[in-house]
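Narrative of activities, Objective 1.

The group set out to show that a structural description can be obtained from nothing but a protein's sequence at a throughput compatible with the screening campaign. Below is one input-output pair from the validation batch, recorded exactly as produced.
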Amino acid sequence: MISSPLITVIIPTYNSSGTLRLTLETVLRQTFKDFEVWIVGDGCSDNSEQVVVSFGDDRFHWLNLPKNSGTPSKPRNEGLKNAKGQYIAYLGHDDLWFPWHLEGLTKHIQQKDCDFVYSLGAIIGPEGVVSFFSLPESLETQHGGLSPSNWMHKRSLIEAIGPWSLKTKVGDDLEFLKRLWAHKVKIGFHREISSLKFPAVFWKMYSLSSDFPQSKYINAMNRDAVALRQEILLDFVSTLSKHYGGLRRRNRYIEPLFSFVHFVLRRYGYNRWPLNHLLYRRYRRRAGLH
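Output recorded for this entry:
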């Protein structure tokens, strides 16, 4: 009898086989090995399937939806339907994991008996480290980046809060969290930088066919992952130190206005029309999708 893996990794993807190959490399380099991976295409028409098959790893499973839904939610839900793991971890098709990602989250969720656990992630832009992301404590404190690439939760959690929303094209991760908070599940924070996010809007990722920015970081990670983590921290601290004075003067006058606008938008709801529709169109344009 073949036992089920402890973790199911779900990777939604759409026509980004170049970055997908690099992302999968970091999954294979995990120190924790008891996992399966469901790579779910959102109506892919490129060679993503061939990329998955080329690894020759029977833990990798490919599934392609017949029609593009325009959101990672539907592929994630398809992955959840096929998941055999006790825990679910998510990864973007252009994001990277440090080798200790799965091991650290697994130990934390088991030792603390959490329903949901998250780690720290760094957001990488063309100029280097832009910021870090973790998880806001509530809707009111959510101001920065957000990504499921640093999340892990019990598979049974979906039975309690429901699957990913198919109505929300932009802000699907925040919508998921709102239901998570509403059910008051036990959430744990693993204080470790374990993921790197490369926002498509920063890089126009879908317009790239070579020279993917992830390659540089994978090479550095393969040489010395601990040294890369240290370099990322120093890079961000250096950036803050150069701009702190200017940001302080600007924020005194502008930050209250930005805070008010964000407060109104959050209260209205990013998933409501026409705001969600406008945000979705802006994302596609800035990410290089046509």
